[in-house]
Design brief:
One of its GO terms (biological process) is mRNA pseudouridine synthesis. The protein is α+β, with helices and mostly antiparallel strands. It contains 7 helices and 12 strands. The protein has 2 domains: 93 residues, Pseudouridine synthase; 133 residues, Pseudouridine synthase (2-Layer Sandwich), CATH 3.30.2350.10. The radius of gyration is 19 Å and the shape is globular.
Length: 233
């Protein structure tokens, strides 16, 4: 598609990002579908995560910086007993440990220690920049990398389910929080290590309770009804 075929489109689309695509890849696919001249996303989801990814087009891209700082809610599955190189399921397993004896009460008590204003060390495989380069690039080159500790906000954290080596959590957090790092730190506190096995973003404020649209549904709608029907939703 040539530059001349793109059009000025203004608005926010709440994409249900599928598994396996980076946020940038998802944005570019939607941008091509809409033939949108200008677009951006408001807080990346890793390829192994799914869920709400607000995409801003045209004049709405001015909202992107504001939305980056808003609250977000996730459902996260932590796998205990395995530490990976990336703190999530995409990395290689670098350590395995037996599981300790656990009960819901002790896990709940530990989770509450992570609520509030806390210090967090981001994963080294992240897009945070150090010496002008993303940390993940330096890590992939085999350089010794340590991410700087940062202050982040956790508004609520609760255990939804415990099954064998999996903990399913609901996490409500602020800007800059890494759920991967939470899984890693919980594993360390439990003495068995852990990584993030699955992650789904349920909402980004102020879009609580609003419906998302998947890529396949979006494509079918555009083919059937055209772009105008999308903004009428």
């Amino acid at each position: 598609m040539s530059v001349a075929e793109f059009h000025p489109i203004h608005g926010v689309l709440l994409l249900d990002k599928p598994l396996g695509l980076s946020s940038s890849q998802a944005l570019q696919r939607v941008r091509r579908m809409l033939a949108a001249a200008k677009g951006g996303h408001t807080g990346a989801l890793d390829p192994c995560a799914t869920g709400m990814l607000p995409l801003c087009f045209g004049e709405a891209t001015k909202l992107a910086g504001v939305l980056l700082g808003e609250r977000k809610v996730y459902h996260a599955v932590c796998r205990l007993g395995q530490v990976t190189s990336t703190d999530d399921v995409e990395g290689i397993v670098i350590r395995e440990c037996p599981l300790p004896s656990l009960d819901d009460a002790s896990i709940d008590a530990l989770l509450q220690e992570f609520v509030g204003r806390i210090s967090q060390v981001p994963p080294i495989y992240s897009a945070l920049k150090q010496q002008g380069q993303p940390l993940y690039r330096r890590a992939r080159r085999g350089e010794a990398v340590r991410a700087p500790q940062r202050q982040v906000e956790v508004h609520a954290l609760r255990l939804l389910q415990r099954h064998e080596d999996r903990l399913t959590l609901e996490v409500e957090c602020g800007a800059g929080f890494y759920v991967r790092a939470l899984a890693r730190d919980l594993g360390e506190r439990l003495g068995c290590g852990a990584h993030l096995a699955a992650l789904r973003r349920l909402w980004v404020a102020p879009f609580q309770g609003q419906s998302m649209i998947g890529l396949d549904t979006l494509e079918q709608m555009l083919l059937r009804d055209g772009r105008e029907a999308l903004w009428a939703r």
